[in-house]
Protein backbone atom coordinates (compact mmCIF):
# COMPACT_ATOMS: atom_id res chain seq x y z
CA UNK A 1 0.00 0.00 0.00
CA UNK A 2 1.47 3.32 -1.01
CA UNK A 3 1.50 6.33 1.29
CA UNK A 4 -0.97 8.17 -0.98
CA UNK A 5 -3.69 5.50 -0.75
CA UNK A 6 -6.09 5.84 2.19
CA UNK A 7 -6.02 3.11 4.77
CA UNK A 8 -9.05 0.83 4.59
CA UNK A 9 -10.28 2.15 7.96
CA UNK A 10 -10.38 5.71 6.60
CA UNK A 11 -13.05 4.80 4.08
CA UNK A 12 -15.59 3.63 6.62
CA UNK A 13 -14.54 5.58 9.73
CA UNK A 14 -14.25 8.97 8.08
CA UNK A 15 -17.09 8.63 5.58
CA UNK A 16 -17.02 9.07 1.84
CA UNK A 17 -15.21 12.43 1.94
CA UNK A 18 -12.13 10.86 3.53
CA UNK A 19 -12.18 8.21 0.79
CA UNK A 20 -11.74 10.96 -1.79
CA UNK A 21 -15.37 11.32 -2.93
CA UNK A 22 -16.36 14.95 -3.47
CA UNK A 23 -20.04 15.51 -2.65
CA UNK A 24 -19.92 19.24 -3.34
CA UNK A 25 -21.13 21.91 -0.98
CA UNK A 26 -24.52 21.82 0.80
CA UNK A 27 -27.18 23.07 -1.60
CA UNK A 28 -25.19 22.47 -4.78
CA UNK A 29 -27.61 19.73 -5.92
CA UNK A 30 -30.46 22.20 -5.34
CA UNK A 31 -28.86 24.87 -7.54
CA UNK A 32 -28.12 27.21 -4.63
CA UNK A 33 -25.00 29.33 -4.22
CA UNK A 34 -22.22 28.12 -1.94
CA UNK A 35 -22.10 31.28 0.19
CA UNK A 36 -24.11 34.42 0.81
CA UNK A 37 -27.78 35.20 0.27
CA UNK A 38 -29.80 32.22 -0.89
CA UNK A 39 -27.27 29.61 0.25
CA UNK A 40 -28.21 26.82 2.63
CA UNK A 41 -28.14 28.01 6.24
CA UNK A 42 -25.52 26.16 8.24
CA UNK A 43 -26.21 24.42 11.53
CA UNK A 44 -24.80 27.17 13.74
CA UNK A 45 -27.35 29.69 12.51
CA UNK A 46 -30.19 27.18 12.64
CA UNK A 47 -29.42 26.07 16.19
CA UNK A 48 -28.97 29.70 17.27
CA UNK A 49 -32.41 30.58 15.85
CA UNK A 50 -33.99 27.58 17.57
CA UNK A 51 -32.46 28.51 20.93
CA UNK A 52 -33.66 32.12 20.58
CA UNK A 53 -37.19 31.01 19.65
CA UNK A 54 -37.28 28.44 22.43
CA UNK A 55 -36.15 31.01 25.00
CA UNK A 56 -38.79 33.45 23.81
CA UNK A 57 -41.49 30.81 24.12
CA UNK A 58 -40.47 29.29 27.43
CA UNK A 59 -39.23 32.24 29.34
CA UNK A 60 -40.87 35.36 27.96
CA UNK A 61 -44.29 34.10 26.93
CA UNK A 62 -44.93 31.11 29.14
CA UNK A 63 -43.48 32.39 32.39
CA UNK A 64 -43.75 36.16 32.25
CA UNK A 65 -46.90 36.83 30.26
CA UNK A 66 -48.99 33.75 31.01
CA UNK A 67 -47.51 33.03 34.46
CA UNK A 68 -47.29 29.32 33.69
CA UNK A 69 -45.29 27.17 36.04
CA UNK A 70 -43.23 24.65 34.02
CA UNK A 71 -43.90 21.97 36.65
CA UNK A 72 -47.68 22.41 36.34
CA UNK A 73 -47.85 22.74 32.54
CA UNK A 74 -44.76 21.15 30.94
CA UNK A 75 -46.53 20.98 27.55
CA UNK A 76 -47.25 24.73 27.40
CA UNK A 77 -43.87 25.89 26.02
CA UNK A 78 -44.04 23.34 23.19
CA UNK A 79 -47.56 24.44 22.25
CA UNK A 80 -46.56 28.10 22.40
CA UNK A 81 -43.47 27.33 20.28
CA UNK A 82 -45.59 25.47 17.72
CA UNK A 83 -48.18 28.26 17.56
CA UNK A 84 -45.62 31.04 17.10
CA UNK A 85 -43.75 28.93 14.55
CA UNK A 86 -46.85 28.25 12.43
CA UNK A 87 -47.99 31.87 12.54
CA UNK A 88 -44.61 33.50 11.90
CA UNK A 89 -43.20 31.05 9.35
CA UNK A 90 -46.60 30.60 7.70
CA UNK A 91 -47.11 34.31 7.14
CA UNK A 92 -43.63 35.86 7.21
CA UNK A 93 -41.33 32.95 6.32
CA UNK A 94 -39.28 33.32 9.49
CA UNK A 95 -39.46 33.42 13.26
CA UNK A 96 -37.83 36.02 15.51
CA UNK A 97 -34.83 33.72 15.94
CA UNK A 98 -34.55 33.22 12.18
CA UNK A 99 -34.64 37.00 11.67
CA UNK A 100 -31.91 37.61 14.24
CA UNK A 101 -29.72 34.87 12.73
CA UNK A 102 -30.27 36.06 9.13
CA UNK A 103 -32.09 32.99 7.82
CA UNK A 104 -35.56 32.10 6.54
CA UNK A 105 -37.64 29.07 5.62
CA UNK A 106 -38.23 28.80 1.88
CA UNK A 107 -40.15 26.47 -0.40
CA UNK A 108 -38.01 24.52 -2.83
CA UNK A 109 -38.78 27.06 -5.57
CA UNK A 110 -37.29 29.82 -3.37
CA UNK A 111 -40.63 31.43 -2.49
CA UNK A 112 -42.53 31.43 0.77
CA UNK A 113 -43.76 28.05 2.03
CA UNK A 114 -47.48 27.33 2.01
CA UNK A 115 -49.42 26.88 5.24
CA UNK A 116 -49.91 23.08 5.09
CA UNK A 117 -46.17 22.34 4.66
CA UNK A 118 -45.46 24.76 7.53
CA UNK A 119 -47.92 22.85 9.75
CA UNK A 120 -46.30 19.51 8.87
CA UNK A 121 -42.81 20.97 9.36
CA UNK A 122 -43.78 22.39 12.76
CA UNK A 123 -45.19 19.10 14.05
CA UNK A 124 -42.04 17.25 13.00
CA UNK A 125 -39.80 19.97 14.44
CA UNK A 126 -41.59 19.72 17.79
CA UNK A 127 -40.85 15.98 17.83
CA UNK A 128 -37.11 16.92 17.61
CA UNK A 129 -35.86 13.59 16.22
CA UNK A 130 -36.71 14.36 12.55
CA UNK A 131 -34.64 17.54 12.81
CA UNK A 132 -31.61 15.51 13.90
CA UNK A 133 -31.67 13.29 10.80
CA UNK A 134 -30.43 15.25 7.80
CA UNK A 135 -29.03 14.81 4.30
CA UNK A 136 -25.90 16.19 2.65
CA UNK A 137 -27.77 19.41 1.79
CA UNK A 138 -28.34 19.93 5.53
CA UNK A 139 -32.09 19.42 5.16
CA UNK A 140 -33.66 17.55 8.05
CA UNK A 141 -36.51 15.08 7.71
CA UNK A 142 -38.90 17.92 8.61
CA UNK A 143 -37.50 19.95 5.68
CA UNK A 144 -37.69 17.08 3.21
CA UNK A 145 -41.23 16.02 4.15
CA UNK A 146 -42.52 19.61 3.94
CA UNK A 147 -40.52 20.30 0.76
CA UNK A 148 -38.75 23.29 2.35
CA UNK A 149 -35.21 24.46 3.03
CA UNK A 150 -33.62 27.00 5.35
CA UNK A 151 -31.58 29.60 3.48
CA UNK A 152 -29.52 32.65 4.39
CA UNK A 153 -30.96 36.08 3.75
Defining key terms:
mainly alpha, 7% strand, two-stranded antiparallel sheet, single chain, 153 residues, 7 helices, 2 strands
Give your account of this protein's structure.
- The chain is mainly α.
- It has one domain.
- 49% of the residues lie in helices and 7% in strands.
- It contains seven helices and two strands, in the order ααααβαααβ.
- The protein has helices spanning 8-13, 43-65, 76-92, 96-101, 115-127, 129-132, 141-146; strands at residues 103-107, 148-152.
- A two-stranded antiparallel ribbon has the order 1-2.
- The protein is elongated, with a radius of gyration of 19 Å.
- It is a multi-pass membrane protein.
- Keywords: Cell membrane, Membrane, Transmembrane, Transmembrane helix.
Amino acid sequence: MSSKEPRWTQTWLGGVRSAGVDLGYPGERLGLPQEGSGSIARWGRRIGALVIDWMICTWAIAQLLLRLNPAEAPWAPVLIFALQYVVLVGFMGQTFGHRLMGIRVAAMDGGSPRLLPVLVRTVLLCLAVPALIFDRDQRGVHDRVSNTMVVRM
